[in-house]
C-alpha cells in the first residue's frame, strides 16, 4: 500500500481538472467533455494498429494500449482519457474464453447454460490483481504519458451486463436466455451476480491504485429488463459497488475518486440511479428533455452526463451546433459532463467529432461568462 501512495505522489500534476470539478459540483469555466468509445474504429490510426494486433492483444500490451488511449486526445480537445480495455476482460480473467470476431463482436467459446456449468466455466479463486495486472500496468503507463493533461477514467462492466454476456455468449436482442435465469434460477442468479460484484469492486479499486482518477460502471443491458427485474437483479449490485469501492479506498487510505454509473436504457429507473450514491449519472440519448429537467429539480447535487445521439454526428455542422446548444441549455453548465448518449459509431465523421468537442467548449464558455 505504501508503494501505491508513493506512485500516486510521483504522477505529473494535473493541468486540466474540469471534469473532476464538474463531478464535485464546483464551478467550471467551460463544460468538460469526453466521448464514450473515443478510442476506436472511426480513427484511421486505431485501424492501423488493429491491422497488426488482435483486439485483446491491444488490451493486454500496455505500450499499445497506452498509444490507442492517447490517439483521440491528439486530435480533439477532450477533458478526459478513458483507458482502452473492454468490459469482457472480467469474464476472461475468471477463466472464460472470449474472442473478438471481426464484423460481429465478442463471442464466448463456452457460454454458461445452466447453473451446473458455472463450476467449470469460472474459477472463483482468480484474483483481479493478478489476472488483470495488464490493465493496471497500462493505466500507470498511460497516467504518466498523459503528463497531467487531463484525468484518466477506469471502468468495468456491471454484474447484470457481464452475467448476461456469460450466458448469451454474444450480443443479443432480447437477452431471453439470460433473463430466463432471473425467472427460473433466482438463487443461482443472485449468487453469480454477488460473486461478480466482489470481483468488480476489486477490479475498480485496483484501477484507482494504478492511477485511474475517475471510474465509470457500464450497465449496458437495462433495455431488456422490466423495472421489477432491474430493482431485484441490477440495482442492489450497483449500490454495493458504489459503497464497496468507497469503503475499500478508505481502508487502503487512497483518496476518493468520483464514480459514474451509465445504465443504458434504464429510463424507468432514473430516480433510483440518482439516489444510489454515484457522483455522476450518465444518460443515454433516449432520455427526454422533460426527464432531464425533472432530474435537475429533484437532484441538484447529482452531476449528469450525456446525452447526444451518436447519430447526430452524421448531421450537418449547422444542425449539430443547434443540437449542442439545446443540450447545453437543458442540462445547464453546472454539474454537467457533455458526452454522447452511447458509444461513438465506427463511421462517425471525424470533422464533426472535432466540431462537437469544440462547440461544447465554445458555447458553454459563453454561457458561463454571461
Ligand atoms: O471508450 C473507450 O474508448 C474505451 C474502450 C472501450 C471499449 N469497449 C473498446 C472496444 C469501452 C469503455 C468498452 C465498453 C464495452 N464493451 C461495453 C459497454 C459500453 C456499451 O457499448 O454499452 C460493452 C457492451 C462492450 C462489449 C463489446 N466490445 C462489444 C459489444 C463490442 C463489439 C461491438 C463493436 O463496437 O464492434 C466490443 C468491441 C470493442 N470494444 C471495440 C472497441 C474499440 C471494437 C473492436 C475492434 O477494434 O475490433
UniProtKB/TrEMBL annotation:
<dbReference type="GO" id="GO:0006782">
    <property type="term" value="P:protoporphyrinogen IX biosynthetic process"/>
</dbReference>
<dbReference type="InterPro" id="IPR006361">
    <property type="entry name" value="Uroporphyrinogen_deCO2ase_HemE"/>
</dbReference>
<dbReference type="InterPro" id="IPR000257">
    <property type="entry name" value="Uroporphyrinogen_deCOase"/>
</dbReference>
<keyword id="KW-0963">Cytoplasm</keyword>
<dbReference type="GO" id="GO:0005829">
    <property type="term" value="C:cytosol"/>
</dbReference>
<comment type="subunit">
    <text>Homodimer.</text>
</comment>
<protein>
    <recommendedName>
        <fullName>Uroporphyrinogen decarboxylase</fullName>
        <ecNumber>4.1.1.37</ecNumber>
    </recommendedName>
</protein>
<comment type="similarity">
    <text>Belongs to the uroporphyrinogen decarboxylase family.</text>
</comment>
<comment type="function">
    <text>Catalyzes the sequential decarboxylation of the four acetate side chains of uroporphyrinogen to form coproporphyrinogen and participates in the fifth step in the heme biosynthetic pathway. Isomer I or isomer III of uroporphyrinogen may serve as substrate, but only coproporphyrinogen III can ultimately be converted to heme. In vitro also decarboxylates pentacarboxylate porphyrinogen I.</text>
</comment>
<feature type="domain" description="Uroporphyrinogen decarboxylase (URO-D)">
    <location>
        <begin position="32"/>
        <end position="41"/>
    </location>
</feature>
<comment type="pathway">
    <text>Porphyrin-containing compound metabolism; protoporphyrin-IX biosynthesis; coproporphyrinogen-III from 5-aminolevulinate: step 4/4.</text>
</comment>
<keyword id="KW-0456">Lyase</keyword>
<keyword id="KW-0627">Porphyrin biosynthesis</keyword>
<dbReference type="InterPro" id="IPR038071">
    <property type="entry name" value="UROD/MetE-like_sf"/>
</dbReference>
<feature type="domain" description="Uroporphyrinogen decarboxylase (URO-D)">
    <location>
        <begin position="153"/>
        <end position="169"/>
    </location>
</feature>
<keyword id="KW-0210">Decarboxylase</keyword>
<dbReference type="Pfam" id="PF01208">
    <property type="entry name" value="URO-D"/>
</dbReference>
<dbReference type="GO" id="GO:0004853">
    <property type="term" value="F:uroporphyrinogen decarboxylase activity"/>
</dbReference>
Amino acid at each position: 500500500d505504501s508503494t501505491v501512495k508513493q506512485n500516486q505522489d510521483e504522477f505529473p500534476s494535473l493541468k486540466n481538472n474540469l471534469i473532476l470539478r464538474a463531478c464535485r459540483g464546483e464551478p467550471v469555466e467551460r463544460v468538460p467533455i469526453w466521448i464514450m468509445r473515443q478510442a476506436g474504429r472511426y480513427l484511421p490510426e486505431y485501424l492501423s494498429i488493429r491491422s497488426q494486433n488482435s483486439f485483446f492483444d491491444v488490451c493486454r500490451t500496455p505500450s499499445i494500449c497506452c498509444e490507442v488511449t492517447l490517439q483521440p486526445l491528439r486530435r480533439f480537445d477532450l477533458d478526459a482519457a478513458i483507458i482502452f480495455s473492454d468490459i469482457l476482460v472480467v469474464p476472461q480473467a475468471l477463466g472464460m474464453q472470449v474472442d473478438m470476431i471481426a464484423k460481429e463482436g465478442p463471442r464466448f467459446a463456452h457460454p454458461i447454460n445452466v447453473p451446473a456449468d458455472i463450476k467449470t466455466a469460472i474459477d472463483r479463486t482468480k484474483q483481479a490483481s493478478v489476472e488483470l495486472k495488464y490493465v493496471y500496468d497500462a493505466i500507470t503507463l498511460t497516467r504518466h504519458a498523459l503528463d497531467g493533461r487531463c484525468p484518466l477514467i477506469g471502468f468495468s462492466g456491471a454484474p447484470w451486463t457481464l452475467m448476461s454476456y456469460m450466458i448469451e455468449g454474444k450480443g443479443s436482442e432480447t437477452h431471453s436466455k439470460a433473463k430466463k435465469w432471473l425467472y427460473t434460477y433466482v438463487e443461482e442468479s443472485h449468487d453469480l451476480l454477488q460473486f461478480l460484484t466482489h470481483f468488480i469492486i476489486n477490479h475498480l479499486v485496483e484501477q484507482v491504485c494504478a492511477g485511474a482518477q475517475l471510474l465509470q460502471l457500464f450497465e449496458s443491458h437495462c433495455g431488456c429488463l422490466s423495472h421489477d427485474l432491474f430493482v431485484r437483479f441490477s440495482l442492489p449490485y450497483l449500490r454495493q459497488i458504489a459503497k464497496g469501492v468507497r469503503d475499500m479506498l478508505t481502508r487502503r487510505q487512497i483518496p476518493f475518486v468520483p464514480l459514474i454509473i451509465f445504465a443504458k436504457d434504464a429510463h424507468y429507473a432514473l430516480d433510483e440511479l440518482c439516489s444510489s450514491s454515484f457522483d455522476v449519472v450518465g444518460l443515454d440519448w433516449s432520455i427526454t428533455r422533460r426527464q432531464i429537467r425533472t432530474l435537475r429539480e429533484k437532484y441538484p447535487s447529482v452531476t449528469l452526463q450525456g446525452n447526444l445521439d451518436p447519430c447526430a454526428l452524421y448531421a450537418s455542422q449547422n444542425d449539430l451546433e443547434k443540437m449542442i446548444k439545446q443540450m447545453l441549455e437543458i442540462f445547464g453548465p453546472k454539474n454537467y459532463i457533455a458526452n454522447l448518449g452511447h458509444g461513438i459509431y465506427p463511421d462517425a465523421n471525424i470533422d464533426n467529432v472535432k466540431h462537437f468537442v469544440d462547440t461544447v467548449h465554445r458555447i458553454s464558455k459563453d454561457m458561463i461568462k454571461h
